[in-house]
Amino acid sequence: MPKRRKLKPAKLFLLFLAVILIVCFLSGAWLMYISLRDLPAINPASLRPVEPVTVYDANDRLVAQLGNKKVIPVKLDQIPPMVRNAFLAAEDIRFYQNRGIDLRSLARAAWHDLTTLSLSQGASTITQQLAKDAFLTPERTIKRKIQEVLLGFELNHRYSKDEILEMYLNKIYLGDGAYGIGAAAKTYFNKDVGRLTLPEAALLAGLPQAPSAYSPVNHPAAAKQRRNEILGKMLAYKLINAQQYRQAAAAETGLNPPPETGREYPWFVDYVTGRLVARFGEDNVYRGGLKVYTTLDPMTQQALQAAFADPANFPASVRDAGGILQPEGAAVFLDPRSGAVRAMVGGREYTGRQVLNRACQTYRQPGSAIKPFVAYGPAIEYEGLTPDSIVNDSPVSFGRYAPRDDDNRYLGPVTLRTALSLSRNVVAVKLLDRVGIPQAVQFARQSGITSLDPVKEGLSMALGGLYKGVSLLEMAGAYGAVANGGTYVKPFVIRKVTGQDGSMLYQAKPETHPAMKLYTAAALTSMLETGVLNGTGVNARVNGRPVAGKTGTAEHGRDLWFCGFTPQLAGVVWIGCDQPQDMSDQNGGMHPAGIFRQVVSTALAGQPVIHFRSLYPGIYPEPVTPPANTPPLNNQGGGNNWAAGIQQRIYNLFSKLKGLF
């Protein structure tokens, strides 16, 4: 049997080496194959900074940014050379000489990773970092590193060095939600990038390596140490001189963050966000880039928020089991001529994004605030009555239902004007019975109150006893229709929306329709003006400015309302507990009317005074004005006041004259 030949050690080593090389070659080929197979295509849109959704007020001033990303794109020529040099020193000093990758740095990192059996050394050039941020995941794998190199080559081929640097400086994450040098300059120092100092520039340049670990907010000592490392590199690369280094290294971090923005008008912004999502979809909204121009009037909104922040404007309050201050409140103010919502508050305290907005998401019992739309308005519109028409305020029953007033008194024959200004319940029910529930619901719907159901509502609807209730927003639209001469304009908050490229994506078109005849609007306005002059709404008087309005108090004071308007501004204020509770000592003519007065006084300060009669030349029924020194009525009930007495004497005189013919 022949002897088996033994391999010599040298040949055995060469064979082993050959196997290793083949395995490495095949592994490398396989890695290259799967890296190329899954290599993302270069999409130029991904290289541009994605701007956040920005929200502007009625004066086109920025009031909020949606989402957590802070982005302020800047051009390269807006970034001082000193700032650019700080980032080059920190991340890629041979940026303008390499071709997208730095072979020396790559070899050094590869050797470190091989000897430590880790992937801790990145050695990514600025071009590679841009490719990673734009097209790849943050995972640390050999495949991703190969893709990063390949994409770096491609980017270097497609774009100039200045273009790559600009894209990088606008896209790199620098902590605290700031993407790009423009946003970081504003976030940490509240200044434009062109005003950054040398120590500030070096501090920002030290952040890309580890934004959390070197955060100047959370780890100021580490941030300062890292900043001085960058300054040392700049000195070594002769980008600054020794004196500049010493001065900059001795400087404090000097953080000066801007005041919090985006939560300045949270209720309004939340409502705008909801409307955006409903129109464009959540993905399209939060992808960013939209510019949203709203109807928000800062003066009105600030006045409303200030009023709601004052505990004196609410009944005695306690916190419920959930920590929410009760009673709660909400309000909406809009321009009745255009339907533009000028201010909105959905609660007394804002506790977080997209919380319950009581101005539009809840339905409550409106009490007597509904009377103009289900009793008096329909009676004037369909029955031809006027403010001077007489109705007998006397006991009446409709089967088992017998309406009454809180004071258990009856005024006898009264005019519609007196009955509405004093909020007499029996008269309202009689008017609704005369008109009929279907026609009353039709009138209310035409005015924008769409939550009424003619099948489920009864005669108690005249007093605000509704099957479902109403929202503040629809009540504001309805009172706005009266203020607008009988034309309903659907309330809206967004004027227009443009894309990141400036293209028009949405332009508001007012949705209007006739709600009532011109005379009906004039008559309702005149009666509601009397209600503020000498009725239940006297607390809403604004010195020197005509106001029309109506109080509303649900049973046992569970819901308190004031709804009113001037020719320029309509508003609805509500107070009540989230879980309805009795507040029998309260009524809508107290705190809600007072809040209305405060907001209107501030919002219209300096604006011209417009009288209602000027809007209805020749047909406006003049309101009954009390004589001088007449004490105002400050309760919800009836009783003998000046207006009721003189109306009664006029009726008695009319009856006597009638008997002579």
Automatic annotation (TrEMBL):
UniProt keyword Transferase present: yes
BP GO terms, sorted: cell wall organization; peptidoglycan biosynthetic process; proteolysis; regulation of cell shape; response to antibiotic
Any one cellular-component term (Gene Ontology): plasma membrane
Top-level taxon of the source organism: Bacteria
Descriptive protein name: Penicillin-binding protein 1A
Matching PANTHER family: BINDING PROTEIN TRANSPEPTIDASE, PUTATIVE-RELATED (PTHR32282), PENICILLIN-BINDING PROTEIN 1B (PTHR32282:SF11)
Taxonomic lineage of the native organism: Bacteria, Bacillati, Bacillota, Clostridia, Eubacteriales
Domain Penicillin-binding protein transpeptidase, chain residue ranges per copy: 329-599
Reaction(s) catalysed by this chain's protein: Preferential cleavage: (Ac)2-L-Lys-D-Ala-|-D-Ala. Also transpeptidation of peptidyl-alanyl moieties that are N-acyl substituents of D-alanine; [GlcNAc-(1->4)-Mur2Ac(oyl-L-Ala-gamma-D-Glu-L-Lys-D-Ala-D-Ala)](n)-di-trans,octa-cis-undecaprenyl diphosphate + beta-D-GlcNAc-(1->4)-Mur2Ac(oyl-L-Ala-gamma-D-Glu-L-Lys-D-Ala-D-Ala)-di-trans,octa-cis-undecaprenyl diphosphate = [GlcNAc-(1->4)-Mur2Ac(oyl-L-Ala-gamma-D-Glu-L-Lys-D-Ala-D-Ala)](n+1)-di-trans,octa-cis-undecaprenyl diphosphate + di-trans,octa-cis-undecaprenyl diphosphate + H(+)
Location in or out of the cell: Cell membrane
Membrane-spanning parts: 12-33
Function summary: Cell wall formation. Synthesis of cross-linked peptidoglycan from the lipid intermediates. The enzyme has a penicillin-insensitive transglycosylase N-terminal domain (formation of linear glycan strands) and a penicillin-sensitive transpeptidase C-terminal domain (cross-linking of the peptide subunits).
Domain (Glycosyl transferase family): residue spans on this chain: 62-234
NCBIfam families (alphabetical): PBP_1a_fam
A single MF term (Gene Ontology): serine-type D-Ala-D-Ala carboxypeptidase activity
Assigned keywords, A-Z: Antibiotic resistance, Carboxypeptidase, Cell membrane, Cell shape, Cell wall biogenesis/degradation, Glycosyltransferase, Hydrolase, Membrane, Multifunctional enzyme, Peptidoglycan synthesis, Protease, Signal-anchor, Transferase, Transmembrane, Transmembrane helix
Family annotation (Pfam families): Transgly (PF00912), Transpeptidase (PF00905)
Topology in membrane: Single-pass type II membrane protein
The enzyme's E.C. designation: 2.4.99.28, 3.4.16.4
InterPro entries: Beta-lactam/transpept-like, Glyco_trans_51, Glycosyltr_51/Transpeptidase, Lysozyme-like_dom_sf, PBP_transglycosylase, PCN-bd_Tpept
Pathway this chain belongs to: Cell wall biogenesis; peptidoglycan biosynthesis
